[in-house]
């Protein structure tokens, strides 16, 4: 099926998560994405298991990690350290619209495959470089990984219980957000190119993204001059806005305004709370959280979670269960929205999480499963004018797979 980016070709020379996430999103939006992989090991994440998806006794297993970020792509396995492999990449770049790469600063220049070199052959090419710390600055030469960036960028300092160790998120969220920012930058450059006719280089750094994504917590620090503290599952600026224990589990209560709090007070049997100056406004509740929250917690502990959730829903008070991932994919709303889907790779069923974007009610999720290593090498090379003998020779020489 065609999409908004139908006719756009992306040369995806990235690996692991941030770059591939951007490439997958562009593929979902209709772009042709050619993923360049090492002929022997492929993208690092192919080996980041278990769990594994096996296609048969005579074929490779693929880690679930790889499958989360490479839907909709073609895999060309080529050795860019070889002169012949480098020339193949240059030929592809001549016809490409976008180059995605996440090599360390200068990493592609030694092969003559950096954006500046490729742009000499194709002035319309848009380049997007994703690194830990950006293309300049005192840390530019360093490698950057999500966990480390969560620590350096301040996210861990505000995650975890107040008396516990600072905590990372359960997902490499900085990588995911960096992939999203990279996609936004690329799409903006595409729009500009439609006016100017020339490409642009987009520089995206994990640390920059992490700092930018601190949102209200960043402004809390800048406005107050003090570093926010860890609040566990509580919110620094809103009360009650946290997890509460029930007799059989936990729920999350997200009271976002004073009228919702008044309804909560009535539900909990204490309508007088909403008129008490100590709790009537959010600012007052934040200032008196150490008194109010334990009182709310004591009441929630008297009944089962689902009973509370039903009454909270009936009263128009935002709340929800803390689901496991298996419970998430069994949730009726998640099922209705089709967030779990399956793509075919030959006879193999490849599970996927759908793209959350919809256009005119239709999902933007690509129908093409993540590829096997080198799955499309022959097709792509033949399109470039190589004969079957040429391809066989390159394969014997280890240039392609």
Automatic annotation (TrEMBL):
Gene3D superfamilies: Crotonobetainyl-coa:carnitine coa-transferase, domain 1, formyl-coa transferase, domain 3
Keyword Cytoplasm: no
GO molecular function annotation: transferase activity
One Pfam family hit: CoA_transf_3
Entry keyword annotation includes Transferase: yes
Superkingdom of the organism of origin: Bacteria
Keywords: Transferase
Protein name per UniProt: CoA transferase
Organism annotation: Billgrantia campisalis
């Amino acid at each position: 099926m065609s999409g908004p980016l139908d006719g756009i070709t992306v040369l995806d020379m990235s690996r692991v998560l941030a770059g591939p996430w951007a490439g997958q999103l562009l593929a979902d939006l209709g772009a042709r994405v050619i993923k360049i992989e090492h002929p022997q090991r492929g993208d690092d994440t192919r080996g980041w298991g278990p769990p594994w998806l096996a296609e048969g006794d005579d074929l490779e297993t693929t880690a679930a990690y790889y499958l989360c970020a490479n839907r909709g792509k073609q895999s060309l396995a080529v050795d860019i350290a070889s002169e012949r492999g480098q020339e193949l990449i240059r030929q592809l770049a001549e016809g490409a619209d976008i180059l995605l790469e996440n090599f360390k600063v200068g990493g592609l220049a030694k092969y003559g495959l950096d954006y500046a070199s490729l742009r000499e052959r194709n002035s319309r090419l848009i380049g997007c470089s994703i690194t830990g710390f950006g293309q300049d600055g005192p840390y530019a030469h360093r490698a950057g990984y999500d966990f480390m960036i969560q620590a350096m960028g301040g996210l861990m300092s505000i995650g975890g219980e107040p008396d516990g160790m600072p905590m990372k998120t359960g997902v490499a969220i900085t990588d995911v957000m960096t992939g999203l920012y990279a996609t936004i930058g690329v799409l903006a450059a595409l729009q500009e190119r439609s006016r100017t006719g020339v490409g642009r280089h987009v520089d995206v750094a994990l640390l920059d993204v992490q700092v930018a994504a601190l949102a209200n917590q960043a402004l809390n620090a800048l406005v107050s001059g003090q570093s926010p503290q860890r609040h566990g599952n509580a919110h620094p600026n809103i009360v009650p806005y946290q997890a509460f224990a029930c007799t059989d589990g936990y729920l999350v209560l997200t009271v976002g305004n004073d009228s919702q709090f008044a309804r909560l007070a009535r539900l909990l049997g204490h309508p007088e709370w909403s008129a008490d100056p100590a709790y009537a406004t959010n600012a007052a509740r934040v200032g008196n959280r150490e008194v109010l929250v334990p009182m709310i917690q004591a009441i929630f502990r008297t009944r089962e979670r689902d009973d509370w959730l039903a009454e909270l829903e009936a009263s128009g008070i935002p709340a929800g269960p803390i689901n496991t991932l298996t419970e998430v994919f069994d949730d009726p709303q998640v099922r209705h929205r089709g967030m779990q889907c399956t793509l075919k790779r030959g006879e193999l069923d490849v599970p996927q999480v759908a793209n959350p974007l919809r256009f005119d009610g239709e999902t933007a999720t690509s129908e093409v499963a993540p590829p096997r290593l080198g799955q499309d090498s022959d097709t792509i090379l033949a399109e470039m004018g190589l004969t079957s003998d040429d391809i066989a020779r390159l394969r014997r020489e280890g240039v392609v797979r």
